[in-house]
Write a structure and sequence with these properties.
The structure is a single chain. The protein has 14 helices and no strands. The longest helix has 47 residues. By secondary structure, it is mainly alpha-helical. It has two domains: 47 residues; 211 residues, MetI-like (MetI-like fold, Orthogonal Bundle).
């Protein structure tokens, strides 16, 4: 009996030790992944603070002195217009996309109508269709309506995001129906219940959706390249690509890196501002499991 108890104690200690080692290994891998992710960003910041001569000589990793001439040079060109174009399109698509995707998700989760499951299955099938397959047909439709080389073309072709619809549907399915039933007993209609009761409580899901939509539009390159041809209407990704081709001959990578660093700031600001809602949504999902 005593030997069995001792054996159980040893096995428990071994399991705890193996679990602790697995935790250390997991944390070590996460730290390595974080370092590997941050290295390109740190390199871009350091390069943007160097002079062209320091970049050409490549004798030191760190700049001899903080040189902001690359930032002044990039801001003197069309960068500010490109930045404004991207910000305008990204904000419009984010606001309109969150509205349309949320309504679609709520409709598929709560409303009962014939063909609802068929519509949902069709949306799931469309997720598996690569975006590149629909680019040319979408461009032909946009060109037929005379919207080529306009920012409206980018807005209209980015309003619906199937992944966001699926996420909002799952959120509303797990949303307690008792809250909506209590609102209806108080005399609220379906839209009033959604607007005044459900949406204020869906802040984490809405914020997460907004982050993903904004990042997708802000970092999009292929779609603007297809739709936009005028330099003054370039999105930021197009402008940085054009600037890289101009400055690569003179090895002025500090200017390109300065533009890249500035282009990251809105995404960082958005994520920092909405991070608490993003974390709340993840905690809620973990708690439900």
């Amino acid at each position: 009996m005593k030997g069995a108890l001792m054996g159980q104690g040893v096995s428990r200690h071994a399991r705890r030790g193996s679990g602790r080692h697995a935790g250390w290994l997991l944390h070590g891998l996460l730290v390595l992944y974080a370092v590997a992710t941050l290295v390109p960003f740190v390199w871009a910041v350091i390069t943007s603070l160097k002079t062209t001569r320091e970049i050409a000589e490549a004798q030191s990793l760190l700049p001899a002195a903080l040189d902001l001439s690359a930032y002044r040079l990039i801001l003197q060109g069309d960068f500010r217009q490109w930045f404004f174009n991207s910000a305008l399109v990204a904000v419009l698509v984010t606001l309109a996309g969150v509205f349309t995707n949320t309504l679609a998700g709520y409709t598929l989760a709560r409303l009962r109508f014939r063909g609802r499951q068929a519509v949902f299955r069709m949306l799931l099938l469309l997720i598996m269709v690569p975006t590149q397959v629909t680019m040319i047909p979408a461009y032909l439709v946009i060109a037929r309506f005379g919207l080529a080389d306009t920012h409206l073309a980018l807005v209209l072709t980015s309003l619906v995001h199937i992944g966001s619809i699926f996420m909002m549907r799952q959120f509303f399915i797990n949303f307690p129906t008792e809250v909506e039933e209590a609102a209806r007993l108080d005399g609220c209609g379906a839209f009033e219940t959604l607007w005044r009761i459900v949406l204020p409580m869906a802040g984490p899901a809405l914020a997460t959706q907004a982050i993903f939509i904004f990042m997708g539009v802000w970092n999009e390159f292929m779609k603007p390249l297809l739709y936009i041809s005028s330099v003054d209407k370039y999105m930021l990704t197009q402008g940085l690509n054009a600037a890289a081709k101009v400055y690569e001959k003179s090895a002025a990578w500090n200017v390109v890196m300065a533009g890249s660093v500035l282009s990251i700031l809105p995404i960082l600001a958005l994520y920092i501002g909405l991070n608490k809602y993003f974390v709340t949504l993840n905690d809620t999902r973990a708690g439900s499991k």
